[in-house]
Amino acid sequence: MASAIAHDDILSLSEDLVKKTKTFGADHAEVVIIKTTDTGIDVRNGEIENSDYSDAMGVGVRVLIGQKSATVSGSDLSPQALSSLAERAVSIAKFVPDDEFSAIAPEDMLEKNPNYDLGCYDDAFPSLDTLREYAFETEKVALSYDGITNSEGAGCSFGSYALGLVASNGFSGLYQKTLFGLSCCVLAGEGTEMERDYDYTTTPFFSKLKKPDVIGRNAAEKTLKRLHPKRMRSGEVPIIFDTRSGRSLLGYFAGAISADRVARKTSFLGNAVGEKVFADSIHIIDDPHLKSGLGSCPFDLEGVRNPKLDIVTDGTLNHLFSHGASSRQLNITNNGRATRSVSAVPYPASTNLYMQNGTMTPAALMKDIDYGLYVMDTIGHGINEITGDYSIGAAGFLIENGEISYPVSEITIAGNLKNMFLNMQAANDLKFESRKNVPTLRVDGMTVAGE
Question: Is the pLDDT of residue 125 over 80?
């Protein structure tokens, strides 16, 4: 059934379903339909390990009767199934408790131009043969390096995504996105002295995907640099986070400024709008309209306008990520950060979140560090989201006399995220490679548990 539905039909199906909910007694309704197509090839040691293809359609219905609401979902888009879905949603809503913060978005907050181009869709779909060739070539390049002894595999994938949202307040919008990925992970060394690392690339356009020789080379070189790690002594030291490991810090911050979590009092920052939460030099942006951004969307998933936000300016927090219910609960402005799956109620989240460049190169950022740590990987999840306490396994390189020295592993780094943010500096090497992006970061005053 899913594959028989064209993208052009998504809005008409959604509109019909909204009308059905009204006939069954709903005061208001929102319908979201998501169609995804994914193809991927995984290879390992020169053999195809996995080949996947999926074509799926999901529909979610949220109905409101007074201040009662219910959400139901399904995957059958036949007329009979959709009618049953609408009836079931209304039946459930009649028996749930009132939610004083549940409401549909007011018309004056809706995005008026919901179909503008995000620059995130590529209609030049690659063939399965092309994906296979990219995966094989990437692994072949990585394995050609002396010292690389095994492979955990390489993969190339393609996905397309179409989302339509229709609501009884008059909103109707649809957008489409594509995503291409190429990755490789290899091992070096033997026995108990083995190390691993990886490289990857993701982009909405196949022509902008990094080539197999680049990904294979990077995966091999990163892995070889990690051979023969040592321990480092315990103590309080400055830590440099590379752009890959530093993204997790931005992720913890994004979760802490969710208006949902602030309202539930489960954020280590609390409602810190107007307060200094980072060092003066830190500036953070969330931009849902970033051209070709992996998190770009022309409207939020309640149909509300979603402007670019200066989240942090000169270290000061300006906004929480809010949506309809959380903004009403906290009595703040809804800034259009609602997202959802077809089976869940909306919740607020970031889109394309990034920390702006600082003024120094990564080399200059560590130049005055006599003894410190350059983190390439963090291991596990040792974060207390209520207190901000941070304690996590790490691997990377020792910094001595301002330069990267030998590889280190089997260490734990610890601090408190509130203090870490206030003692953070950013380098000038920001690249947009994910939904959350940072330049190389330096955090002073952290604790390392080594030997």
Answer: yes
